[in-house]
Amino acid sequence: MFSKSLVYRAAHGWGSPLPTALDSPRTLVLAFAASGYATDPAPFDQLAAAFPQALLIGCSTAGEIAGVEVHDDSVSVAVTRFEHTTLRQASTGVVDAGDSFHAGARLAAQLADRELRAVFVLSDGLGVNGSALVEGLSRHLGAGVAISGGLAGDGSAFQRTWVLNGAKRETQHISAIGFYGDRLQVGQGCDGGWLDFGPERRITRAEGAVLYELDGKPALDLYKTYLGERASGLPGTALLFPLAVRRDGQGPETLVRTILAIDEARQSLTFAGDLPQGGVARLMRANADQLIDSAGRAARQATAGAPNTAPGALVISVSCVGRRLVLGERTEEEAETVADSAPPGSAQVGFYSYGEIAPLATGRRSELHNQTMTVTVLSEV
Predict the structure, then answer these.
(1) Any bridge partners for residue 287, and if so which?
(2) What would the pLDDT profile of 21-55 be if each residue is shown by its tens digit?
(3) Is the dihedral of CA 209, 32, 144, 295 positive or negative?
(4) CB environment 332-344: b (16+ within 10 A), e (fewer)
(5) At what angle do helices 100-111 and 130-141 cross, to 10 degrees?
(6) pLDDT, tens digit, for every residue of 220-262?
(7) Cβ–Cβ contacts within 10 Å for residue 68, how many?
(8) Helical spans, DSSP H, in 89-196
(9) Which helix (H) or strand (E) holds 300?
(10) How many whole angstroms separate alpha carbon 150 and alpha carbon 273?
(11) Cα 180 off chain centre by
(12) Contact in structure between 132 and 138 (CB atoms under 8 Å)
């Protein structure tokens, strides 16, 4: 197994020559790009031409991770040739958010096989309910298949996201790669670093990813009260204050949810994933040190899940756009912290997303997260 990362910029082209010798049916090409590349096919056409046998997927981002650097207006690429692992690509369109569970089931039907060990999935970031997508995949693939990935981004604009299906950039679309064979090792890590503040409130009315009421009061009105003067910047400023959600109102484990849109008329908030009616929600906040530390914890979890990793491992980091807003000029420290804990000789690639997909802990079922750093380590033994 061998992995190489590289970066493309429109004004300069590729930072290093494309490693065409890595092309094979067992080669995966991941490409994470600024959303503006929706109208610039050049880098994707070049990748498709350079690696005609390989599988190519990717998506738009809110920032591209390449090694220990974070870029904007670029394409961050990892080319990985597996020696013993078979790859299969799946894709599907999505009619609307209500089709998300069935989209997951359609992907699962394309990928299902007794040799399937892992799935990496990239989804449209605005028109898909990420929770339902993951549920559809998980339920139809069953236990024992490691699922990770993320929702495409569009900076802090929240206007247009797209996913690569081969060299094509498509909206309302989901692409996935299945990994097959018992020589594959998969490590997964997930950590947030956010702290709760303020009172817990009962989710008294929610439908899927739309939250209408907390403690019987309009959700948007309550949220604006907490944000104060920052409320004028919604939905963008909501990235700084996500919600911690517990499904049944009991137990320590929480999911983090970030607002994608608001509806003034209905006083509602739309999130990237489901809000469980009857659960509880609480606001969260963080500082840069907490987020950087959490990235290291996620990387160590993932590395521990892939022991005896030889040089050439692929490390895929998917972090949330909201974390980047908090980190500001310290954003690259997050990528550096992951690299410090990654297996020696590995190649790191990734992106800032509108939602992250990973299990909360090793052996657990995958979930959709927000405001979280997730790390996937792929290697062979």
Answers:
(1) none
(2) 999 999 999 999 999 999 999 999 999 999 999 99
(3) negative
(4) ebbbbbbbebbbe
(5) 30
(6) 998 898 888 888 888 878 878 889 998 775 666 788 888 888 9
(7) 15
(8) 100-111, 130-141
(9) helix 288-304
(10) 12
(11) 21
(12) no
Query: If you ran DSSP here, which 8-state letter would residue 97 be given?
Result: G
Tens-place pLDDT, residues 296-316: 999 999 998 887 667 789 999
CA distance 119 to 103: 14
Asked if 321 contacts 35 with a C-beta cutoff of 8 angstroms, the reply is no
Tokens 């991941």 belong to which residue? 30
3-class state of residue 239 by DSSP: helix
User: Tokens in use for 98?
Assistant: 């209500």
Nearest residue to 65 via CA among 37, 32, 42, 38? 32
d(C-alpha 32, C-alpha 1), whole Å = 21
CA dihedral 324, 329, 330, 336 (to 10 degrees): 90
Spacing of C-alpha 80 from chain mean position? 19
Report the greatest alpha carbon distance in the chain: 61
Query: What is the bridge-based pairing of β-strands 243-246 and 280-285?
Result: antiparallel
The answer to whether the beta carbons of residues 165 and 91 sit under 8 Å apart is yes
Q: At what angle do helices 288-304 and 331-341 cross, to 10 degrees?
A: 20
Record the tokens describing residue 297, joined without a space.
């914890």
Query: Torsions phi, psi of 279, nearest 5?
Result: -80, -175
* Measured distance CA(246)–CA(35) in Å, rounded: 33
- Residue 148 CB-density burial (10 A; 0-12 exposed, 13-18 middle, 19+ buried): buried
Closest Cα partner for 220 from 263, 274, 177, 174? 263
Distance of alpha carbon 137 from alpha carbon 130, whole angstroms: 11
| Cα–Cα distance, 14 to 169 (Å, whole number) | 19
